[in-house]
Design brief:
3 helices; rod-shaped
C-alpha cells in the first residue's frame, strides 16, 4: 500500500473511469433511453412491414393484369390468324371485274 492511497480508492476510481468511458462511447445508456430506441426501432419495422405488404399487393395486382393482357393478346393473335386465312381463301377477281384493280393491288 502506498502512503495516503488505498487499493479501495483506486478500485473505485477505476470503476468510475470505466463507467464514464462507457457512457461517453455510447455503450452504457439509461433504461428509458434504451426503451425509446427500441420503440423507435419497432415502429420503423412496422412501417417497413406495411410498405412491404403494400408493394406485394401492387405486384400481385400488376401480375394479374399482365396475365390478362397476355391472354387477350393471344386471343387477338388467333383472331388475326383466322382472319388472314379467310382473306387468303377468298377468290381473286377476274381482270374485267370492277373490283379487279383492288385484287391486282393485293396480288402485287
Amino acid at each position: 500500500m502506498i502512503e495516503g492511497f488505498s487499493v479501495l480508492q483506486g478500485g473505485a476510481a477505476a470503476l468510475l473511469a470505466i463507467a464514464v468511458f462507457l457512457i461517453l462511447t455510447g455503450r452504457l445508456v439509461w433504461h428509458n433511453q434504451l426503451k425509446q430506441v427500441r420503440q423507435d426501432c419497432e415502429k420503423r419495422v412496422e412501417q417497413a412491414n406495411d410498405e412491404t405488404a403494400r408493394w406485394r399487393s401492387a405486384f400481385e395486382y400488376s401480375e394479374q393484369a399482365r396475365r390478362i393482357d397476355a391472354e387477350h393478346a393471344g386471343k387477338l393473335l388467333e383472331f388475326g390468324y383466322a382472319t388472314n386465312r379467310v382473306i387468303s381463301a377468298l377468290p381473286v377477281a377476274p381482270k374485267g371485274e370492277p373490283d379487279a384493280s383492288a385484287s391486282a393491288a393485293m396480288e402485287g
